[in-house]
Write a structure and sequence with these properties.
The complex is a heterodimer of chains A (about 450) and B (about 375). Chain A has about 450 residues and is of the alpha/beta class. Chain A has helices spanning about 15-25, 30-40, 45-55, 105-110, 125-135, 150-155, 175-180, 215-235, 240-255, 270-275, 280-290, 310-335, 400-415, and strands spanning about 60-65, 90, 100, 115-120, 165-170, 195-200, 295-300, 345-350, 350-355, 365, 370-375, 385, 385-390, 395, 420, 430. Classes of the chains: A alpha/beta (about 450), B mainly beta (about 375).
């Protein structure tokens, strides 16, 4: 793993690696690359943690509900109240606990989930909300904190695996603020190799198939020759650029070897039908498939469809049943395959939506009191954590902010939340700031 | 902010590009009274004299006296009440709701005398035939049926034709969910229903035969920017007085349906042609942006009014000349209009709807946000 990090040099010789450095600097990521090196010494620095991580080999599927779903039409319904909306609530398998009538399937397996009904965060705009809820912390320039998927891929991933460790499945090329976010630096100080491989829809990975006019033997011979000369060059010249090129080749070779994992058509037709026909459902199935075959973190999104300032009920009547079925199928499949204990499924957006309906049939942004769901992966099942008041306006019990949530997720995955990092010319930072601890009731 | 006196305009300045001599109608609206109900009105129905309103509200059914501005809650559905109608000849009024239930009320006792569970999903809209013998209700949940979120086929009949007398279902008609608007022809012979995808189907009420079917793509958005799915559709429709044409309304397509900034749109279709022919639509520069949720002819048949929400521009209610399609008056009400109503004599126009729901005050109380306005109509030629 050491050779995956470029060396730090103060020279200005114009070599390719320094060109890369200058570009990173121009992108505001110089500190990030420095931090990558500094952090390496901290990786697995605690032997017991390293053993635990390798042993447990946990994985994560993040259903990223971008745009922010309504808590009223999902996990925290308020039927019969002025804010409750037109959909009812149904009894779940947990005594006395109701969820939206749009989620009948999850109601039958709610004992597999932890539902947090007391999320309370600060940002009320998408970009900032996405930042906080995917990185766990507000920005602290020039330091760029890695996104959750990058951290999990770095900490729990199998870097020698040909299968990408962090995959983003999102067929929507746009997405307003999410589009802008996607264009940013996801891996932060960990470095680009911990960024996601993006696929889905128009983002099918091109040219993964070996050309037809090239036999497998010829292909192997050519690759062996390429490896010999490039490794020799890398060793003779001590070239980080050559090392990076080799790493890129290795990654492409890995992708070529697992290309079928990215082909929806290769998935069993019965499974595709069972998950549902929409893009989000299909990619959730693909996420399960990737996890089963070696990926560590798969994030599934579909643009930003939950931002229903208009047509709230008209959209949620379609989006929530799809989410309900996807969660049901995913959790059930993982459990049947004995993978649920080691695979965490998270369903959340960047905040919630207002209790009150606007004059465009919509609900607006609301970070003050919202809900999210987790199943498996070391999180205690069957817990409804926190509560809101009768109208869903305020959290009245067990506030959970981004730090507490991330500390809980990290702890459940076996990643130390409080780990500190000392980067050159920067104050000490921690994986989760503020010495915030996991919610003990939620971690197995 | 609520405007006590909305902008009034009577814009007759657009020349008619036609060789025939056309007498363009002139009309103006003057606000004469207004008041609020506790929650938003999704629909309403007027008594014969136009003094009493049955209001379909988010929290139940209200009776409102338009003269005294007094109101009383009569009952509830299991969810929002979506529409109301009178069966004057039967001493009855009706309400339908997002619980899929249709209720018959005695207009004297105001007690429920019949109740039918029509749909598993919402009754999006309900209408009564002119002869008061038939009721129609439409339903359908938009569910994902394909990779690009094409609507899944219906799980229950989307359109029901019901006997007003017995409540028995006479015909069950197929459509593609969600079916959001329904209307009878003036002679009570035909029934039209429009859906999310801009598809209109018309049936013969007696035989149940599907007599016309077409799709206009101009009311439906597939979200390129944020949401790869379908939104919008036809939110209201009505037959012309002669019955050979149908008016549709909703919102023009958008790249980002979440913006709600599509064109305020009506279209007029000759459904008796094969295939049906679009005759007219909102003229250029005669509309703003926002979803239009209601369209209705004035009893004179000389103009029609569309209403809805203002997202951009300077109007959310506008009247259009029946013959030319030109805009002849407009209003900017400052709230979302969900239904335009005319009493039989045509001297008044009642608008119902809602402003944005306020948050609770420190005592947990939510202010009223349902809106009712009464306008005097003047300037109409004999």
């Amino acid at each position: 793993m050491n050779d995956s990090f470029p060396p730090i040099s103060n020279s200005q010789c114009g070599s390719p690696e320094h060109t890369v450095h200058r570009r990173l600097f121009l992108q505001g990521s110089m500190a990030a690359s420095l931090a990558s090196v500094a952090s390496f010494s901290g990786l697995f620095s605690i032997p017991t943690y390293a053993e635990q991580v390798q042993k447990r080999s946990k994985k994560v599927i993040l259903l990223w509900l971008c745009g922010a779903p309504s808590q009223f039409e999902t996990w925290d319904p308020k039927p019969g109240t002025s804010m409750g909306g037109p959909f009812g609530a149904i009894q779940t398998v947990l005594p006395g606990i109701q969820i939206s009538s749009l989620m009948p399937k999850c109601a039958t397996i709610l004992n597999k989930f932890t539902i947090i009904r007391s999320m309370q965060t600060e940002p009320s705009e998408h970009f900032q909300g996405i930042d906080v809820m995917t990185r766990g912390e507000k920005p602290r320039p020039p330091f760029m904190r890695p996104i959750l998927g990058s951290v999990v891929a770095e900490q729990l991933g199998h870097l020698d695996s040909p299968v990408p460790q962090f995959v983003l499945l999102d067929p929507c090329p746009e997405g307003n603020e999410f589009k802008a976010f996607k264009a940013g630096n996801w891996a932060g100080w960990l470095g680009a190799e911990y960024g996601p491989v993006r696929a889905g829809g128009e983002y099918s990975i091109p040219d993964l198939a070996r050309p037809e006019n090239l036999t497998e033997t010829d292909f192997s011979d050519r690759e062996a020759l390429r490896q010999f000369f490039s490794r020799k060059f890398e060793n003779d010249r001590n070239s980080a650029a050559a090392a990076a090129y080799n790493a890129a080749f290795n990654r492409v070779q890995g992708l070529m070897s697992c290309a079928p994992l990215f082909d929806l058509e290769q998935l069993p037709a019965a499974d595709r039908e069972r998950y549902g026909r929409g893009a989000f459902a299909q990619h959730a199935l693909q996420a399960r498939h990737l996890i089963e075959n070696g990926s560590t973190f798969v994030m599934v999104a579909n643009g930003m469809p939950w931002d229903n300032h208009v047509f709230q009920h008209e959209m949620h009547q379609m989006l929530v049943p799809e989410l309900d079925n996807v969660l049901f199928q995913l959790v059930t499949d993982l459990e049947e395959r004995s993978l649920l204990d080691d695979t965490m499924v998270i369903a959340m957006g960047e905040f919630g939506r207002t209790p009150w309906i606007n004059d465009a049939r919509g609900r607006d942004h609301y970070p003050k009191a919202w809900s999210m769901a987790i199943a498996g992966g070391g999180v205690q099942p069957g817990i409804i954590y926190g509560a809101t008041d009768p109208l869903g306006v305020e959290v009245v019990e067990n506030h959970v902010d981004n730090r507490k949530l991330f500390a809980t997720i990290f702890s459940a995955l076996g990643i130390e939340p409080g780990q500190s990092f000392n980067l050159p010319n920067l104050p000490t930072f921690h994986r989760v700031e503020g010495d915030v601890q996991a919610i003990p009731e939620l971690v197995i | 902010m609520f405007k006590r006196f909305p902008n009034l305009s009577s814009d007759l300045l657009h020349p008619v590009k036609s060789l025939k001599i056309v007498v363009m109608e002139s009309v103006s609206f003057k606000l004469t009274s207004h008041f609020k109900l506790p929650t938003g009105l999704l629909g309403g129905a007027l008594s014969l004299d136009g003094d009493l309103l049955i209001a379909a509200c988010m929290d139940g059914i209200y009776q409102a006296d338009l003269k005294t501005k007094e109101f009383e809650k009569l009952g509830e559905h299991g969810s929002y009440v979506s529409s109301a109608a009178w069966l004057h000849s039967r001493g009855t009024f009706l309400t339908a709701g997002y619980d899929g239930v249709l209720k018959w009320f005695d207009d004297e006792s105001r007690q429920v005398r019949l109740e039918r569970k029509l749909h598993d999903f919402w009754s999006w809209d309900m209408a009564v035939s002119q002869d008061q013998s038939l009721i129609a209700s439409v339903t359908g949940q938009y569910l994902s049926g394909g990779y690009k979120y094409e609507p899944l086929t219906e799980s229950e009949p989307s359109v029901l034709l019901i006997s007003a007398e017995t409540g028995e279902v006479i015909h069950r008609f197929e459509h593609v969910p969600s079916v959001q608007a329904v209307a009878f022809s003036a002679d009570s012979q035909f029934l039209a229903a429009g859906n999310l995808m801009g598809e209109v189907r018309i049936w013969n009420c007696r035989s149940g035969e599907l007599v016309s079917k077409w799709t206009t793509p101009d009311f439906t958005s597939w979200g390129i920017i944020k949401s790869h799915c379908y939104l919008g559709g036809i939110f209201s429709l009505c037959f012309t007085p002669e019955g050979n044409e149908v008016l549709l309304t909703g919102m023009g397509p958008m790249r980002d349906p979440m913006a709600g900034n599509g064109r305020q749109l009506w279209q007029r279709w000759d459904w008796q042609q094969s295939p049906p022919v679009k005759r007219d639509e909102t003229h250029k520069n005669e509309s703003g942006e926002g979803l239009m949720e209601t369209i209705a002819f004035h009893p004179s048949g000389k103009f029609f009014v569309m209403g809805g929400r203002l997202r951009g521009g300077d109007l959310n209610v506008a009247a259009f000349d029946e013959e030319t399609g030109n805009r002849i008056a407009s209003l900017k009400t400052g709230y979302r209009v969900t239904e335009v109503l005319f009493p039989g004599d045509g001297n008044k126009m009642i608008l119902v709807g809602m402003q944005g729901q306020p948050g609770p005050d420190k005592n947990g109380q939510v202010g009223k946000f349902g809106r009712i306005e009464s306008y005097e109509i003047s300037g109409l030629s004999n």
